[in-house]
Design brief:
Elements (H helix, E strand, L loop, with lengths): L3 H4 L9 E5 L5 H14 L4 E5 L8 H9 L3 E5 L7 E2 L2 E2 L3 H18 L6 E5 L1 H6 L5 H9 L6 E5 L5 H6 L2 E4 L20
Parallel strand pairs: 1-7, 1-8, 2-3, 2-6, 6-7
Antiparallel strand pairs: 4-5
């Protein structure tokens, strides 16, 4: 009979589920670091951004030069609007999120990638744009060797429970709090 310690050990050929969450800055940045590391070992990486889409970010510009090792697609339609501290979610936002998730599922199951990063997927779950159980199903049915990285604030407990590695990035201090606007190369 196996003891609990050996029961949960994975073969290093099995894909991992990694979550970067929390209120601090650096969740996407950490995931991009994993993409570079994987590509450096000859692995094929896909980054799907679920919310970013309106801005020409530094990462979207450099990824064009890193293709075909790393591919990146901005699938979102930009940030969700907030009025009086409340999200202003539209039917269009919901349809975009659902369509984007279906697209992500196809890419994940294509067998073409060693790592897929679902940037800001935790946000669209916590905003109620997609059901966490649909995401769980995608994770559970992914190809065996695929590493899956999920980023964004508010990772649900159901995802944290099945993840292999979870990092919570906590804000201690941010330049924005001092009135410093978003800086090119740092925030985008």
């Amino acid at each position: 009979m196996k003891d609990k310690e050996t029961e949960y050990k994975k073969d290093n050929k099995e894909g991992l589920v990694i979550i970067n969450t929390g209120g601090g800055k650096g969740k996407t940045t950490a995931a991009l670091g994993l993409a570079l590391r994987a590509a450096g070992h000859g692995q094929k990486v896909l980054i799907l951004q679920f919310i970013k889409g309106a801005w020409k970010t530094g990462e979207s510009k450099i990824m064009k030069r890193l293709t075909p090792e790393i591919e990146m697609e901005q699938l979102g339609k930009g940030f969700i609007k907030v009025e009086d501290g409340k999200l202003q979610i539209t039917e269009k936002d919901i349809k975009n999120a659902e369509g984007t998730l279906l697209y992500a599922k196809e890419k994940i199951n294509s067998g073409k990638y060693d790592m897929v990063i679902l940037d800001e997927i935790n946000n669209i779950i916590s905003y109620g744009l997609v059901d966490v159980n649909v995401v769980l199903d995608i994770i559970k049915k992914r190809p065996v060797g695929l590493d899956l990285v999920l980023t964004g604030r508010g990772a649900p407990d159901k995802l944290i429970d099945i993840a292999d590695t979870v990092s919570e990035i906590r804000e201690i201090k941010h330049a924005y709090s001092k009135g410093i606007k978003a800086k090119k190369g740092i925030e985008y």
